[in-house]
Amino acid sequence: MVGLKVFAPKVVLFLHAFPLNKGMFKYQFKALEEARIPYIAVDYPGFGDAPAPLDLDPPWEVYTNYIVWRLRELGVKKIIPIGVSMGGYLIFDLFKRFRDMVDSVVLVATRAKADDEERKKQRYELAEKVLKEGKDFLIEAMLEAQTSPATKKDPKKMAEIRCIMNEATEEGIAAALRAMAKRPDYTSLLKEMNIPTLVIAGADDEKVTPPAVVRRIAEESNSAIFAEIPNTAHLPPIENPEKFNEIVVPWLRNMITEGNPDCL
Q1: By the 8 A CB rule, do 104 and 37 touch?
Q2: Which of 28, 61, 201, 239 can pair with 214 through a Cys bridge, CB separation 3.0 to 4.6 Å?
Q3: Which CATH superfamily is domain 11-257 in?
């Protein structure tokens, strides 16, 4: 990637859920290419094709710093991030610490509130167990919790999601779990988010981020609209890509062309 630069005033930035990688957005990549919308997708350390994390108990901000480093390496100055779950947490930190870079945002199946003490303890215990016993048990648990009944009935889709999760390393999983446990509460930040914001929930997400929890982000933000996608739980972009793209792609086109209608 040495010498590679992105020559676009604004680009869409895909930020994946835990414990997946940028492969979860493959249906969006195709849709954005057809719509001629520029995009970048980043894997977190230890996920996908990203290098292993250097620290297995990193500060939360390390992940945002890594993303910004990658963006600056490519010459990107303005982004429209789409973040699912952990990716949504990262969007909040991007807006908090690198506000000038953020043009508008898409928050998917995520929450602004920090973990309570019990959840923090659970994350650390899971991290220890993954390092000692491997990742298989966690992936099975994530598949059960993160997918809708409709997705569970689709063996091909379940295999697709499992394969993406299996690309994560034990070190990457453990580091991310511990970092997420340390993330701050971003609830007070919602009132400051005076940028165009699209908030999306999976209608069947009962175990991770129920629609009522996600809707609260839209209700407490100044410039947000809310959409709920059927036949999907915690992973709308890959569980129901047709409906997800139907909502997101036109919205992105409006954001990309804002102020420059002839750029596409």
Answers
A1: no
A2: 201
A3: Alpha/Beta hydrolase fold, catalytic domain (3.40.50.1820)
